[in-house]
């Protein structure tokens, strides 16, 4: 079977399944835990109000999907993180081989496991700093692999400008995480911005799925370059917002200390 045909079939089936799942979730009044609802509500505060309802609906849906993977709760959180990395790496391999539909499935599964590792740790009351560090490092490795494979894929297709934009998107995505980690080490907790890891994974996966269908029809890659550009711009803005907020808080704290002295 030709790769474009495989992408068309797999991409179409997966999108139909996901749309059906979302409709079932929205129409059957399924519920998630109060903690997950509160977390989504907190995260949505940094989203522009016009998109907040959509973000909340999709967030509830993703947590609902994650909650169905009952077998995962028998696995140690750090092993869930390792499994998530493995799926992300597999996704990167398939993208490099032009099988972007299957690559998107692995990326989506890895993203769901990224939700579950922390969720399992909280519910089983085995939260550890070492686990949080491992999770953060593995997340970055997974993202580097995914962005690198997309860069390679776009270069093969002749989209050289978007290959550069992909490299920039990867750099600023890392900067978003770095600014937060550095600020937290200084006693702050910056969560501003609209392009966190979960948004980056979601946009990447959706773009890959849509292009797996469209490429068969047009022989062009359209959604992935658009998605990568959105990630680049969003990550750039988010990193600046977090840096600005953190810098201002630190400067204000220093000013207060100087006035007290």
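-> sequence recovered:
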């Amino acid at each position: 079977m030709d790769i474009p045909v495989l992408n068309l079939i797999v991409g179409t089936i997966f999108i139909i399944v996901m749309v059906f799942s979302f409709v079932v979730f929205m129409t059957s009044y399924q519920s998630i835990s109060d903690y997950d609802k509160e977390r989504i509500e907190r995260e949505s505060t940094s989203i522009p109000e016009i998109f907040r309802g959509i973000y909340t609906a999709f967030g509830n849906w993703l947590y609902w999907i994650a909650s169905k993977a009952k077998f995962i709760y028998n696995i140690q959180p750090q092993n869930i993180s390792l499994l998530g990395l493995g799926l992300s790496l597999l996704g990167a391999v398939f993208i490099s081989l032009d099988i972007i539909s299957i690559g998107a499935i692995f990326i989506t599964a890895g993203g769901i496991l990224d939700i579950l590792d922390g969720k399992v740790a909280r519910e089983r009351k085995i939260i550890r700093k070492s686990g949080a560090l491992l999770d953060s490092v593995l997340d970055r490795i997974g993202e580097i692999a995914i962005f690198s494979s997309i860069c390679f894929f776009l270069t093969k297709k002749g989209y050289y400008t978007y290959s550069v934009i992909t490299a920039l998107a990867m750099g600023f995505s890392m900067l978003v995480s770095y600014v937060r980690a550095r600020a937290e080490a200084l006693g702050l907790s910056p969560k501003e911005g609209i392009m966190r890891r979960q948004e980056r994974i979601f946009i990447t996966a959706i773009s890959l799925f849509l292009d797996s269908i469209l490429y068969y029809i047009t022989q062009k890659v359209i959604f992935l370059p658009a998605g990568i550009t959105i990630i680049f711009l969003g990550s750039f803005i988010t990193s600046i917002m977090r840096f600005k907020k953190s810098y201002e808080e630190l400067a204000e704290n220093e000013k207060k200390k100087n006035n007290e002295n």
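The mean pLDDT is 88.
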